[in-house]
């Protein structure tokens, strides 16, 4: 497998990066700059790739800034929308990102695109569901006339199990220290589970999973 990892600099995509290093014959990464509010994600992605000598492609997607309406881009409070999803949802983001990643993989002659979507962590995001991934893979194969695969190592894992996977891969402390998931971009407040505000949905899920995994590890030791 020659794999292109969609790397945001967060816990899940970074875990996928190390999973790919373990399982793929060749690994490269792609970071999408869509004018997101916080630049710490880009710093984390760049550090991980430099540290592990992984080629990193950076693609600009300015259209999401023009569309707007999301807390991932605009300075607005994080809250639930009347559509039943958090306003951190960027409509069409994974559709665009997977299309561009598959196009890049096509040019690189890579056979797999790896993305860290996850059932537990999708916060109602429709473009993180397994059903969407299957349909998207079929559409990309048809449209590119190329046997591209969308690989989702975390799809059916809980956040606790994702922490366990990072421990199994020997990079749990790297995930704690060198990744960023907080919606508020707080990379100065350090917790046992990593940096973050400690209160946003992303932080709370990360914290809960970390603590659950440590309890299990302690019980089994």
Account of the protein in words:
The chain has 221 residues and is an alpha/beta fold. The chain has one domain (2-162): HUPs (Rossmann fold), CATH 3.40.50. Helices cover 44% and strands 13% of the residues. It has 8 helices and 7 strands; from the N terminus they run βαβαβααβαβααββα. The chain has helices spanning 11-23, 40-51, 63-67, 93-108, 130-144, 159-168, 172-178, 201-220; strands spanning 2-6, 26-33, 56-60, 112-114, 149-151, 190-191, 194-195. A 5-stranded parallel β-sheet has the order 3-2-1-4-5, sandwiched between helices. A two-stranded antiparallel ribbon has the order 6-7. The termini are far apart.
Q: What percent of the residues sit in helical stretches (DSSP H or I)?
A: 40-55%
Q: In order across it, which strands form the biggest sheet?
A: 3-2-1-4-5
Structural class given helices, strands, pairing?
alpha/beta
- Total individual domains: 1
The low-confidence runs, each spanning 5 or more residues with pLDDT under 50, are none
Relevant CATH superfamily: HUPs
Strand content: 5-15%
The overall average pLDDT, rounded, is: 87
Distance between the termini: 35 Å
Computed Rg: 17 Å
Element-level helix/strand string? EHEHEHHEHEHHEEH
Largest sheet: 5 strands, parallel
Work out the number of β strands.
Answer: 7
So what's the overall shape?
A: globular
């Amino acid at each position: 497998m020659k794999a292109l990892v969609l790397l945001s600099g967060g816990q899940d995509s970074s875990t996928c990066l190390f999973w790919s290093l373990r399982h793929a014959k060749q690994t490269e990464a792609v970071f999408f700059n869509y004018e997101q509010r916080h630049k710490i994600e880009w710093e984390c992605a760049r550090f991980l790739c430099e540290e592990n000598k992984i080629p990193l492609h950076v693609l600009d997607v300015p259209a999401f800034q023009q569309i707007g309406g999301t807390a991932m881009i605009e300075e607005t409070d994080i809250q639930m929308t009347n559509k039943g999803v958090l306003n951190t949802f960027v409509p069409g983001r994974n559709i665009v990102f997977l299309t561009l990643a598959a196009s890049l993989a096509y040019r690189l002659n890579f056979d797999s695109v790896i993305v860290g979507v996850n059932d537990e962590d999708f916060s109602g995001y429709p473009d993180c569901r397994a059903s969407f991934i299957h349909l998207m893979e079929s559409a990309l194969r048809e449209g590119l006339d190329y046997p591209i695969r969308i690989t989702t190592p975390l799809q059916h894992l809980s956040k606790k199990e994702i922490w366990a996977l990072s421990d199994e891969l020997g990079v749990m402390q790297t995930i704690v220290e060198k990744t960023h998931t907080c919606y508020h971009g707080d990379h100065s407040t350090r917790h046992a589970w990593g940096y973050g505000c400690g209160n946003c949905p992303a932080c709370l899920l990360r914290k809960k999973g970390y603590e659950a995994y440590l309890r299990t590890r302690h019980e089994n030791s």
